[in-house]
Design goal:
PH-domain like; alpha+beta; 26% strand; 231 residues; 4 helices; elongated; cytoplasm; eight-stranded antiparallel sheet
């Protein structure tokens, strides 16, 4: 499906949008008396804003059957704007992934097919609330839903770079590419655990005895050197 802003008309009899229950879509919050300004156009007359776990949906209060929707996967940036030099009204500013190789078209559009074809070219949408004090709550809702909809491309790249189909074995990561024989970063060629009581095929007690004999030789050598020096 092409990215970007789309017209929304799937409204139930009670005036609320029909959600994609099969995909687990749920309503997060509702803002009444909310206007949207698409691109460089003037704000639409107030309507109702619905934030779901998957989409931002706005339904017009002045024109029945008119609405817009955009998925959170297509929203690349959102921020609260209170600078009158940036925009006359406090708003939640969003950037939308628009159609590739297309510029936003200025001018009005209606419900005809020509108007709908312009929607995916909209790269900016501002949400203006009647109560500007609610912008922070709206921003938090956007943050929450953005976390629920991470970029799948980024996740695939991260998994490919970090794990390469890895699995956890013997307390160390065993990777699927060039490190498939590595355990905790150590090549088994240099990491060969010995059975208890053995040391490289020799009996452990023999190794300890040999160590004690060597220690005794060092002590005898030290005493001999002390006598020669007159100590």
């Amino acid at each position: 499906m092409a990215p970007g802003l789309k017209r929304f008309t799937d409204v139930a009899a009670d005036g609320t949008p029909r959600l994609d229950d099969a995909a687990g879509e749920e309503l997060v919050c509702v803002e009444r008396a909310a206007s949207v300004a698409l691109g460089s156009r003037a704000p639409e007359p107030p309507g109702t804003l619905f934030i779901t776990t998957r989409r931002v949906i706005w339904l017009s209060g002045a024109e029945k059957g008119k609405g817009y929707a955009v998925g959170f996967l297509d929203i690349t940036l959102h921020a609260v704007s209170r600078d009158p030099e940036a925009y006359p009204s406090p708003c939640l500013y969003t950037q939308i992934e628009a159609e590739a190789d297309s510029d936003e078209e200025d001018g009005d559009f209606d419900s005809e097919a020509g108007g709908d074809s312009q929607l995916p070219k909209i790269s900016e949408m501002r949400i203006i609330l009647a109560d500007a004090a609610q912008l922070d709550s709206l921003f938090n809702a956007f943050c929450h839903c953005a976390e629920l909809n991470p970029d799948p491309t980024a996740e695939e790249n991260e998994d490919s770079d970090l794990f390469h189909g890895g699995d956890m074995t013997n307390g160390g990561w065993i990777h699927g590419d060039e490190d498939e024989h590595m355990v905790d970063g150590i090549d088994p060629e240099f990491f060969i655990p010995n059975p208890i009581g053995q040391n490289g095929g020799d009996d452990l007690s023999s190794s300890v005895l040999e160590l004690q004999i060597n220690d005794q030789r060092f002590e005898d050598a030290d005493e001999e050197e002390a006598r020669e020096n007159g100590h």
